């Protein structure tokens, strides 16, 4: 049966859950809408369009559209699918033993470390998913009700985190500015006031990097491989340091929700067409309303840091989960009704080779943007980056369809399976 990133067991097309494959392929393509910004522009452009000047014209239109429909949405879908995969792997008539499960997760961790360090992709999610998956095993047998409650608790923590960050970024800069003015005038500051300045200096360096950090970021794309490796490794390790505070819970909240949605038949596509119509309508209504509100706040505040920091929008999870539910309902409805069969088959092929295709996105990113390839990092305006996205979509879709007509697994899916079971696996399609 299929998991979130690969078909762990070899199944015939008639035995596969089409909805999972199609949604996975859709989410994998959709993730590139956001990741291309990290490949092609300075990192802060991911959340702040003022970094690359995308505040007007066609670039702003692209920013607005992607933020409205895709930012956070595709990551939420992918995380939900990973949670569903855990249920598939550990449940059913023949659940895999804990040793197989944990070996699989540790192999995923190894793939992620290779992607993050060797392929220079600091936006890698495989490491995060591998670590989160280690925790999900303990709730694999929970009822849907308990899983929904746990997801709500995790989302509650995230909302609290966003609220604190919003308040800090709303009031701390002005307070720090006043303290700095007093210090420049020769006034003595208390220990508490000095701590406020130190905290703000650290936060400001994260959200508005100083010249030395910007130079190091450029080196990740414009230096030789070893120079880029060292510069990238520092950023990746810094990102890992934030996992326990934020990133792990961001992933787990949607994964647990995905486990519950699978157990209630939503992600299996077994609910009624009427249910999926309602899910799509309600999801898009909530998601578009919330995301539209957030965009209004960003533009209305002239992209103030509290709105574009990437970690301080209080309504963030409501918007992204709403949009994810909308797309899930729409895709499941298409599967149930049999609509757009060629498109569904193409997306399902992409989804069945999700691990291979995800790593290929990193390889293509290196070729297109690094100095060792076409050296296009920070050379293309935002709207032109999406021409690269369209090219990748076409190439990866054609490759996936072609490959799966001949083989049972994608190459990386085959390797993952073979290493997990410790033996060679049949590769040729029957």
Give an account of the 3D structure.
The protein has 430 residues and is mainly alpha-helical. It has one domain (13-421). The protein is built from 17 helices and no strands. It has helices at residues 18-40, 57-69, 73-90, 98-118, 126-136, 144-184, 191-207, 211-222, 225-241, 243-263, 273-300, 305-308, 316-337, 341-352, 354-369, 382-404, 411-421. It is globular, with a radius of gyration of 22 Å.
Short description:
The protein is mainly alpha-helical and 430 residues long. The protein is 72% helix and 0% strand.
Mean pLDDT: 92
Uncertain residue ranges? 1-14
Category from helices, strands and their pairing: mainly alpha
Total individual domains: 1
Report the total helices. 17
Radius of gyration: 22 Å
- Number-wise, the strands total 0
Fraction of residues in helix: over 70%
- What is the first-to-last residue Cα distance? 17 Å
Main beta sheet, described? none
What series of H and E elements makes up the topology?
A: HHHHHHHHHHHHHHHHH
The coarse silhouette is: globular
Strand content: under 5%
Topology, please?
Layout: H1 18-40, H2 57-69, H3 73-90, H4 98-118, H5 126-136, H6 144-184, H7 191-207, H8 211-222, H9 225-241, H10 243-263, H11 273-300, H12 305-308, H13 316-337, H14 341-352, H15 354-369, H16 382-404, H17 411-421
Descriptive key words:
430 residues, mainly alpha, 17 helices, 0% strand, disordered N terminus
């Amino acid at each position: 049966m299929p998991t979130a990133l690969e078909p762990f067991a070899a199944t015939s097309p008639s035995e596969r859950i089409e909805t999972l494959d199609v949604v996975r392929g859709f989410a994998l393509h959709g993730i590139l809408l956001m990741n291309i910004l990290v490949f092609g522009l300075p990192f802060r452009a991911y959340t702040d369009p003022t970094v690359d000047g995308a505040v007007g014209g066609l670039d702003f239109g692209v920013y607005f559209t992607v933020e409205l429909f895709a930012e956070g949405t595709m990551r939420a879908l992918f995380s939900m699918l990973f949670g569903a995969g855990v249920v598939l792997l550990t449940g059913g008539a023949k659940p895999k033993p804990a040793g197989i499960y944990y070996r699989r997760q540790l192999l995923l961790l190894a793939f992620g470390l290779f992607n993050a360090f060797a392929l220079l992709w600091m936006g890698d999610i495989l490491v995060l998913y591998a670590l989160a998956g280690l925790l999900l095993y303990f709730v694999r047998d929970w009822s849907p009700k308990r899983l929904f409650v746990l997801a709500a608790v995790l989302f509650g923590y995230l909302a609290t985190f966003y609220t604190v960050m919003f308040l800090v970024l709303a009031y701390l800069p002005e307070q720090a500015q006043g303290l700095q003015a007093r210090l420049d005038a020769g006034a003595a500051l208390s220990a508490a006031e000095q701590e406020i300045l130190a905290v703000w200096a650290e936060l400001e360096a994260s959200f508005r990097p100083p010249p030395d950090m910007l130079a190091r970021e450029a080196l990740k794309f414009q230096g030789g491989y070893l120079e880029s490796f060292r510069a990238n490794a520092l950023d990746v390790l810094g990102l890992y340091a934030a996992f326990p505070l934020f990133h792990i819970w961001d992933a787990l909240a949607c994964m647990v929700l995905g486990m519950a949605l699978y157990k209630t038949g939503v992600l299996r596509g077994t609910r009624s067409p009427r249910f999926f119509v309602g899910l799509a309508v309600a999801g898009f209504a909530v998601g578009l309303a919330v995301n539209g509100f957030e965009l209004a706040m960003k533009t209305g505040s002239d992209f103030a840091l509290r709105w574009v920091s990437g970690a301080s929008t209080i309504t963030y999870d409501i918007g992204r989960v709403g949009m994810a539910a909308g797309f899930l309902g729409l895709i499941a409805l298409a599967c149930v009704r049999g609509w757009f069969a060629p498109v569904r088959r193409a997306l399902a092929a992409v989804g069945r080779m999700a691990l291979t295709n995800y790593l290929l996105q990193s390889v293509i990113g290196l070729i297109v943007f690094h100095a060792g390839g076409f050296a296009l990092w920070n050379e293309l305006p935002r709207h032109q980056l999406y021409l690269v996205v369209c090219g990748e979509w076409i190439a990866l879709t054609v490759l996936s369809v072609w490959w799966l007509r001949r083989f049972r697994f994608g190459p990386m899916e085959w390797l993952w399976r073979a290493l997990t079971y410790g033996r060679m696996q049949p590769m040729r399609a029957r």
